[in-house]
Amino acid sequence: MADLLALKQALETLSLGESLQYVAEHYNQVVFSSSFGQEDQVITDAIFKNNPTKAPLNIRVFTLDTGRLFQETYELMDSTKTKYNQQFETYFPNTAKVEALVKEKGFNSFYYSVENRKECCFIRKIEPLKRALAGAEIWITGLRSEQSDNRAGMEIVEWDEANKVIKFNPLIHWTYDEVLAYLKENKVPDNPLHRKGFISIGCAPCTRAIAEGEHPRAGRWWWEASQKECGLHAS
Predict the structure, then answer these.
(1) Looking at the domain assignment, is residue 73 inside a domain?
(2) Catalytic residue, candidates 120, 121, 203, 230
(3) Which residues contact 127 (CB under 8 A, 6 or more apart)?
(4) Is residue 230 among the annotated active site residues?
């Protein structure tokens, strides 16, 4: 896609703040999905303080509440809203679908098979995401290439066929040390669980701390041998 290539070339030469401002000015419907991980907190900070003397960038920020997040994640949501004096849209799973899943398979069906786990992820995350992305032209994510094998080949700009949207990954080439340095330098709040070995944080029943030397995504769905993806960012 010629337009996609042109956008990629334009963004690759810009800083994080400049790239966010570029998409906000050139596209009408720009959205950012935050799970309140460290990468997402970097982008949140850049969005809300990019124009300190003006209105925030024209980027809609939303999050997915699966109903099974850590308490620390909820506390970070509130502290982030307070710090930037901004509101985020929150999308929840379809109540009837969650009720049907629990009635048929119980609360912890995801432990018993990859198919069950993906079913739970679809109901609690993917379906709400599709509602959140409806009508969007640009979807900003906090993906980094070193997070997983699936993400290693991703580029700064891609076409997401599943959601019919341009996906913009401004941190795709950042290292984890660069993320930590940004958080420290800009005094950005993050989840205290990160200091307890929880590098990648998702739903509480599906996330454990990792040991030194383990892959950053090893703590996600640790009981199964999979690509450690829920389907939100399928390659």
Answers:
(1) yes
(2) 230
(3) 93, 94, 97
(4) yes
